[in-house]
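Hi F.,

I've been meaning to write this up properly since the lab meeting, where we talked about keeping a consistent format for the predictions we share between groups. The idea is simple: the sequence comes first, exactly as it goes in, then the structure tokens exactly as they come out, then a line or two of notes. No screenshots and no reformatting. I'm using this chain as the first example so we have something concrete to point to.
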Amino acid sequence: KTSSVMGAHAGLGVTTLAVASAITGTAMLVKKRREISKAMLEDFPMYILTNHRSAVVTIFGLPLSLLWDGALRLRSHYIKVVKSAPHLHDQRVMTIQEQVKNRPDKNAPLCTARPGWMSVSLSYRTYKKKWDAIAMPLYDILSIDTDNLIVRVEPFVSIGQLTHALNPQGFTLPVVPEMDDLTVGGLINGTGIESSSHKYGLFHEIIAELELLLGDGTVVVATADNEYKDLFHAIPWSYGTLALLLSAKLRLIPCKEFVKLTYTPHTKMESYVEHMRTLSGEYNGDNSETTMFVEGLAYSLNEAVVMAGEFVDKVDVPRGCTNRLSLWWKPWFYKHVQKILSKNQETVEYIPLRDYYHRHTQSLFWEMELMIPIGNNVIFRWLLGWLMPPKVSFLKISQTEMTRQLVEKTHVAQDFLVPTRKMAEFLELAENEFDRIYPLWLCLHDHAPMPGSLLKDPAVPRENGHEMYIDIGVYGLPQCVHDKREDEFDMKKSMKNVIEELRGMDGFQMLYADVFNTREEFEKMFDHKEYRKLRSKYNADGGAFKEVYDKMSVIL
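Output, unedited:
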């Protein structure tokens, strides 16, 4: 009997244990399934964004970009028709001034509250998360004075806004940087260049007046010849580290409705280098009488097309010779130029002015080929070309940490300013260090002395103190990355080699891109002596503003 009871108890214990194990197992399975479901919910979007980014950009990025553009146009129209922009500007300045004067932590560095994702640069800058961000809703064209050839604008006015407003009136900026979304503030505080820069210099050369807010809350107006002339000359390349820009007056020039563009193919490096230097006017010491626009696209070390353009009236355009590049079904401009290169025959076209100014916008130069590989396909262009291009802002938002790291390691997006006397040497350096990234953008500019600026004066100046430089834009993936041999490319090593050689050539790196220098190396390329004196004089140091290096996307 005792044995039977013990056996019954043992059987009951086993049964209880089995039930408990089953319950525990079921609970664990449910928990595991929940974890798997949660992980799938969290990881699946990341998987899609990382491995199918092209589809995401096409399905979501293009429509959102269109809606964003439409909202900005409606706002601009509302301000123009209903509001008094100059009066509102003064009110906004007072509000911004109060923010600066009354900020609780006077030691926190100042910056604008414009989100980093809205910048056109593909680089990531995180300083705004830590600094005192000042709201600056300054997006309007304040006045257009065609008699005195001056336009007054707020800093967040875009190049697209300006060309839409100015060109129909028969006027334009002497230098019109390519991308629609570039802002006047970014171009003044940083830099800007275009195919007319061999005549007019970098974007800052067209500034007539700057309205600035100093670190202590004082508003000053700086010109090239008033008491704040030292500050006026130092603002370019300062990247908002001397003062906050409130408005600017920019010079205008008359323009015509079309550009007559002559494409000249070359099959030797020496040939296209010499052609561009001749067109720039550097040999005769006077670039004021040269052709209005000069640009080059290099498709290999020895193959390039040099383009020279002039303003022409509509009545002078021959029938059947117009190329409206902005039409949605048109091939991307660099592909169009490459086709001319393959024919190896000089070609002349007549392009509407605004189409010419934004000839690379549709394809973001050639970066769209990486984002949407089928973007230049004729079917895609006809069906969805009218939505192109997506905003750089949305491209940045759609990046995952994995794609960001891949871009940082393999994708080159750099502009190097090189004296034309060193152009051939740098082209060979870029071919070797960046493993045949092509096309290359070639854009001349007249480099003038900039007292107080980070940018050093010309090393081998002409009689007028200027020197001809060329911007060599390197955008894309090295050939070894295209060939799935990513391990063969070391971005940091290549960039450090290029920057070291660039310094020896008296050249500069544009600072919108990733910086691969230590602070000491950075100060070898850019002159900080007068810059720091001005920071002290205008209350920029001691907490109000950090130095330029602190704002860059530094990768060491």
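Notes:
The two ends are 82 Å apart (CA to CA).
The longest strand covers residues 467-476.

If this format works for you, I'll send the rest the same way.

G.
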